[in-house]
C-alpha cells in the first residue's frame, strides 16, 4: 500500500497546481495560434511547447540542472541567441531599397516614437495599483514597439529578465497581428487621394554600394553608439556576408541552418520563462496592453512622418509607406502594399515600403542601444 | 510614492526626448553618409552587369540563366493557370 502511495505522490496529477494547469493551457493556446492560425509559427510553436514543458510538475525542466534551465542560461542569459538571430536577419536583409532612397531612414526613425512613448506609458501605469515597473522594466516593455523579436528579447534579457517571457510573447504575437492592427490606423490618418499616390521607380543600386553599406553602419555605430554594437555589429556581419559575394556558404548557413537551429532553442528558452509565478500577474496584462499601444503609436508616427515628407516633396511619397517603419520585416511592407492596392489596384508599393521597413530594423536596434546606454548603465 | 513616480515620469519624459533625438540624429548622419557614398562609388553603375561573377548563390544568378528561369517560371504559371481554369 505504501508503494502505491509513493507512486501516486510522483504522478503529475497529484502534483499539479492550478496555476501550472493554466500555464499549460496557455502553452497549448500558443501551439494553436502557431499551427492553425499561422501566427509566427517558427517561434510561437517552440515557445508554446517550452511553456508546456516548464510547467510540468516534478520533472523540473527549468530548475537548476534541467534542460530548459541550461538552454536559457547559455542562450538568453548571455544574450547569444538573439544576437545570432540578428546575424541571420542581417544575412536575409536586402538594403537595396533603402540605399536607393536614403530619406526612408527618417520613417524608420519616426516609427520608433512608439518605443519611447510607451516607456512613458509604462511608468504612468504605476499609478494603477498592482503595477510597479521600474525604468528598466519600462524600457524592456517599450521595445515591443520596435516590432523586432530578437531586439526585444535581447533588451529584456539585459534589463528585465523576469518579464522576458511576457515581453517575448507580446512582441511575437503583435508582429503576427500586424495585418490586423495597422490598416485601421493607416486608413484613419490618410485620405483616399494620399493612398493613391504612385511613387517613382527606385534607381538600381550597385553591388559595391550594398557592400559598403553595412561597414558604414557599423562605423558610425562604433563612433556614436557603441552600446548598440552587439546588435548592429552582428546584423552588419550577416549583411556583409550576404553582399560581399565571397562567402556565399557562410551567408546561406547564417540565413538558413544557423537561424533555424537557434530559433528552436530561443523559442524553448523563452517558453521556459512562461512559468506560472512569472506570467500569471497583472503585469503581464499591462505588458500586453502596452505592447499594442506601442505598436499603434509607432505606426501612427510613421504614417504622419511620411505625410509630412509627402507634403514637403510635393506629393511624391505615399504616406502609407510610413507604417512600414516599425520593422516587422517583411510583414509590415506587405500590409502597406495590400492597403495601397485597395485604393489603386495598379500601385505596387512593396519595394518602396521595404526601404522604411529595413530602416525600422536599424532604428529599433539604435533605440535599443540608446535604452541600454541610458537605463542599463 | 506619488512623488517617486513623478520623478521617474520626468526621467521617462527625458528619455523620450533624448532617445528620439539621438535616433533621428544617428539616422540623419547615416542618410548624409549614404548620399556621400552613392556619389563616390557611383550609384548609377548598371546593376545587372555588376553581380555576374560576384554572387553565385542566392537570388542573383547571371542574366542568361535568369532569363531561362524567368521563361520557365512564366510558362509554368501559364500552364498552371490553364489547368485551373478549364
Please name the defining characteristics of this protein.
heterodimer, A: 377 residues, mainly alpha, 21 helices, 73% helix, globular, B: 86 residues, 2 helices, elongated
Describe the structure.
The complex is a heterodimer of chains A (about 375) and B (about 90). The model of chain A has no long low-confidence stretch (mean pLDDT about 90). Chain A is built from 21 helices and no strands. Chain A is mainly α and about 375 residues long. Chain A has helices at about 1-10, 10-15, 20-35, 40-55, 65-75, 80-90, 95-100, 105-110, 115-125, 135-140, 150-160, 165-175, 180-190, 190-195, 205-225, 230-245, 250-270, 275-280, 280-310, 330-345, 350-375. Helices cover about 75% and strands about 0% of the residues of chain A. With about 90 residues, chain B is mainly alpha-helical. Chain B is built from 2 helices and no strands. Chain B has helices at about 1-40, 65-85. The termini of chain B are far apart. Chains A and B meet through α8, α9, α10, α15 and α17 of A and α1 of B.
Total helical elements of chain B: 2
| Number of distinct beta strands of chain A | 0
State the separation between the terminal residues of chain A, measured CA to CA. Answer: 60 Å
Q: Globular, elongated, flat, extended or rod-shaped: what is the shape of chain B? A: elongated
Using only C-alpha atoms, the radius of gyration of chain A works out to: 22 Å
Q: How many beta strands in the DSSP annotation of chain B?
A: 0
How do the helices and strands follow one another from N- to C-terminus of chain A? HHHHHHHHHHHHHHHHHHHHH
Order of helices and strands of chain B: HH
Shape assignment of chain A: globular
- The whole-number mean of residue pLDDT values of chain A reads 92
Percent strand of chain A: under 5%
Amino acid at each position: 500500500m505504501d508503494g502505491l502511495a509513493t507512486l501516486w505522490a510522483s504522478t503529475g496529477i497529484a502534483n499539479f497546481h492550478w496555476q501550472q494547469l493554466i500555464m499549460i493551457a496557455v502553452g497549448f493556446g500558443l501551439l494553436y495560434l502557431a499551427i492553425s492560425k499561422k501566427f509566427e509559427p517558427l517561434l510561437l510553436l517552440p515557445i508554446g511547447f517550452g511553456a508546456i514543458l516548464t510547467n510540468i510538475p516534478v520533472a523540473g525542466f527549468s530548475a537548476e540542472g534541467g534542460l530548459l534551465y541550461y538552454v536559457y542560461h547559455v542562450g538568453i542569459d548571455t544574450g547569444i541567441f538573439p544576437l545570432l538571430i540578428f546575424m541571420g536577419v542581417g544575412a536575409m536583409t536586402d538594403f537595396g531599397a533603402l540605399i536607393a532612397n536614403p530619406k526612408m531612414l527618417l520613417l524608420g526613425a519616426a516609427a520608433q516614437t512608439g518605443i519611447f512613448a510607451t516607456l512613458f506609458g509604462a511608468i504612468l501605469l504605476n499609478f494603477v495599483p498592482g503595477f510597479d515597473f521600474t525604468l528598466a522594466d519600462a524600457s524592456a516593455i517599450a521595445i515591443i514597439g520596435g516590432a523586432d523579436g530578437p531586439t526585444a528579447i535581447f533588451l529584456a534579457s539585459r534589463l528585465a529578465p523576469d518579464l522576458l517571457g511576457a515581453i517575448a510573447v507580446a512582441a511575437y504575437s503583435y508582429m503576427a497581428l500586424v495585418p490586423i492592427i495597422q490598416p485601421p490606423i493607416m486608413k484613419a490618418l490618410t485620405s483616399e487621394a494620399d493612398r493613391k499616390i504612385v511613387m517613382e521607380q527606385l534607381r538600381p543600386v550597385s553591388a559595391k554600394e550594398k557592400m559598403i553599406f553595412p561597414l558604414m553602419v557599423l562605423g558610425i555605430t562604433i563612433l556614436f553608439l557603441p552600446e548598440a554594437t552587439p546588435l548592429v555589429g552582428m546584423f552588419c556581419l550577416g549583411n556583409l556576408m550576404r553582399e560581399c559575394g565571397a562567402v556565399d556558404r557562410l551567408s546561406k548557413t547564417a540565413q538558413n541552418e544557423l537561424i533555424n537551429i537557434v530559433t528552436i532553442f530561443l523559442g524553448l528558452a523563452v517558453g521556459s520563462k512562461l512559468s506560472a509565478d512569472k506570467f500569471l500577474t497583472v503585469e503581464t496584462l499591462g505588458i500586453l496592453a502596452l505592447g499594442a499601444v506601442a505598436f499603434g503609436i509607432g505606426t501612427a508616427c510613421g504614417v504622419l512622418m511620411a505625410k509630412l515628407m509627402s507634403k514637403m516633396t510635393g506629393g511624391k511619397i505615399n504616406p502609407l509607406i510610413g507604417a512600414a517603419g516599425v520593422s516587422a520585416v517583411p510583414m509590415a511592407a506587405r500590409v502597406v502594399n495590400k492597403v495601397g492596392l485597395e485604393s489603386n489596384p495598379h500601385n505596387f508599393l512593396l519595394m518602396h515600403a521595404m526601404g522604411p521597413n529595413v530602416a525600422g530594423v536599424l532604428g529599433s536596434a539604435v533605440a535599443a542601444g540608446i535604452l541600454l546606454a541610458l537605463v542599463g548603465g | 510614492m506619488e512623488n517617486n513616480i513623478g520623478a521617474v515620469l520626468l526621467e521617462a519624459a527625458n528619455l523620450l526626448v533624448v532617445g528620439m533625438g539621438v535616433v533621428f540624429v544617428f539616422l540623419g548622419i547615416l542618410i548624409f553618409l549614404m548620399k556621400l557614398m552613392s556619389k563616390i562609388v557611383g550609384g548609377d553603375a548598371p546593376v545587372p552587369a555588376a553581380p555576374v561573377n560576384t554572387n553565385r548563390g542566392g537570388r542573383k544568378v547571371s542574366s542568361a540563366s535568369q532569363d531561362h528561369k524567368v521563361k520557365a517560371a512564366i510558362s509554368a504559371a501559364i500552364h498552371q493557370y490553364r489547368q485551373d481554369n478549364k
